[in-house]
Amino acid sequence: MFRTPLYVAAAAVAASTLFTACETKPATASEGGSPTAETVAADSAAKAGAMSGTAATATDEANAAPAPDPSSISAGSIADAATITARPQVPILCYHQIRDWRAKDSKGAKDYIVPEQKFKDQIKMLADSGYHTILPDQLYAYLTTGAKLPSKPIMLTFDDTDLDQFTVARPTLDKYGYKAVYFVMTVSLGRPNYMSKAQVKQLSDEGNVIGSHTWDHHNVKKYQGQDWVTQIEKPTKTLEEITGKDIKYFAYPFGLWNPEAIPQLKQRGMVAAFVLAEKRDQQDPLFTIRRIIASGYWTPRTLHNSIVQSF
Ligand SMILES: [Zn+2]
């Protein structure tokens, strides 16, 4: 059982600054899903004018009725785990730092550091291909009740509170009317190169969703006793104070989880949690929702292929 002294927190932040490979797998593993021949190149999708009037109409319809708050969905109307697992997965991308590579960035770190122009190209590809961003309440309603989603739904998530998510990602997404989920580790709030509380609040006020990513990024599998309070309960409360909204979604540091974590998260108000590219849990698919890391090495075409093959 660890009590996290301040120097550990400082070390965690420093380590995260040096090497943001805080997640373990930049993988594109597919969950037994058949990588179909549908490797429609992003370029041709763009040329075909995928942002058609039809797509826009679909979005308008899906946006017309805001997604219900998960608490308003009665337990009796929530589908069982097998039904949830059987629904087609919505692609979810995970980003960390958005900045140009530096000489000291390791080969491995570059999976987690997407150069600015590359990021802009990736997001433009999504827009040109007709993807519509959705938020966790929409995903939750879809998974639990089969609620409709816009055409070509996708969810964009940003982990670790890096400042460039505010200064670079936010204006890029704004250009396309995209919204995203920001999983914040609260220890880093206000530190150099990380977002401030005011910036997190602004993201929330602008219609993005703030999720919890623990206090200082310790591995959930190692928590005991008071760790649940330090890593989940208090940071969640902090984020609720900052945003004035309930915090309902959680991303596991490093994508690592164990079955013991799920009741602990539920007890503290979480309704769903996000892993990385590994398989979902058959018993608790809502607490093991898959994401893939959009690598800094990926061209828009590679990203598109990964989306199609991984979900
Ligand atoms: Zn992280």
Automatic annotation (TrEMBL):
InterPro entries: Glyco_hydro/deAcase_b/a-brl, NODB_dom, Polysacch_Deacetylase. Keywords: Signal. CDD domains: CE4_NodB_like_5s_6s (cd10918). Pfam families: Polysacc_deac_1 (PF01522). Its main location: secreted. PROSITE patterns: NODB, PROKAR_LIPOPROTEIN. It is found in: Secreted. Residues 1-21 form the signal peptide. The keyword NAD does not apply. Residues 152-311 form the NodB homology domain. This is Polysaccharide deacetylase family protein. The lineage of its organism: Bacteria, Pseudomonadati, Bacteroidota, Cytophagia, Cytophagales.
